[in-house]
């Protein structure tokens, strides 16, 4: 019986070719999914709420989105990439205004970090990087930190949206979803 169970469990693994999974592909998949959610939420939030902040001294909606974009560039440098000319992650939160410009910056930052992750050679995964805080990580761990950071700020934007009666597009009942979504 055990032999029969093993055959049924493992036969599909050897009988059908499996797509090779790599850290790079997994990173691309998770970041692609995250970017889809955060971009769709940024698009759903009305432009007049981009200056809204939950309290004094806390990032506004637009600043939170731009913080995510800025971080994508910062983390790219931790993986060895060079920030594209004309982009200053340190000033993005204060220098980019208008919903369309904020969303464009977000999309560009995701394209950048996903390209960096896709092209990071596996043999460099264990290379050590030092964050400005002094913390040391290898590049593979840095990729996981990038993912965690992206989801952290997706959650922040969900809270901001819900505080303003904006429902994330993926949470709407089917009757409220338009054909284009």
Structural write-up:
This protein is mostly helical and 181 residues long. It has a single domain, classed as Up-down Bundle (Four Helix Bundle (Hemerythrin (Met), subunit A)), CATH 1.20.120. It contains 6 helices and 2 strands, in the order H-H-H-H-H-E-E-H. The protein has helices spanning 2-15, 23-44, 61-78, 92-95, 99-119, 139-163; strands at residues 128-130, 136-138. It has a two-stranded antiparallel sheet with strand order 1-2. Helix 2 (23-44) runs antiparallel to helix 5, helix 3 runs parallel beside helix 5 and helix 3 (61-78) packs antiparallel against helix 6 (139-163). The longest helix is centred in the C-terminal third of the chain and has 25 residues, at 139-163.
Q: Quick recap of the structure?
A:
Helix content is 57%, strand content 3%. The protein has 181 residues and is mostly helical.
Radius of gyration from CA coordinates: 20 Å
Question: Which CATH class applies here?
Answer: Mainly Alpha
Distance between the termini: 49 Å
Number of domains: 1
Number of strands: 2
**Overall geometry:** globular
Q: What name goes with the CATH superfamily? A: dinb family like domain
- Structural class, from helix and strand content? mainly alpha
Uncertain stretches of 5 or more adjacent residues: none
Residue-averaged pLDDT: 90
Number of helices: 6
Oligomeric state: single chain
H and E string: HHHHHEEH
Portion of residues in beta strands equals: under 5%
Q: Give me the CATH architecture, please.
A: Up-down Bundle
What kind of sheet is the major sheet? Answer: 2 strands, antiparallel
Main sheet: strand order: 1-2
- CATH fold-level name: Four Helix Bundle (Hemerythrin (Met), subunit A)
């Amino acid at each position: 019986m055990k032999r029969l169970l093993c055959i049924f469990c493992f036969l599909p693994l050897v009988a059908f070719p499996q797509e090779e999974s790599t850290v790079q592909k997994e990173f691309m998949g998770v970041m692609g999914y995250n970017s889809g959610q955060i971009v769709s939420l940024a698009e759903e939030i009305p432009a007049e709420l981009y200056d809204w902040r939950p309290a004094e001294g806390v990032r506004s909606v637009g600043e939170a989105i731009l913080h995510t974009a800025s971080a994508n560039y910062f983390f790219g440098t931790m993986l060895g990439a060079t920030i594209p000319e004309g982009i200053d992650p340190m000033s993005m939160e204060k220098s980019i205004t208008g919903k369309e410009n904020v969303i464009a910056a977000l999309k560009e930052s995701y394209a950048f970090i996903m390209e960096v992750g896709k092209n990071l050679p596996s043999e460099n995964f264990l290379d050590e990087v030092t964050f400005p805080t002094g913390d040391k990580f290898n590049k593979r761990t840095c990729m996981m930190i990038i993912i965690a950071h992206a989801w952290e700020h997706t959650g922040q934007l969900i809270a901001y949206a819900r505080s303003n009666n904006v429902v994330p597009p993926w949470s709407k009942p089917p009757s409220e979803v338009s054909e284009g979504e």
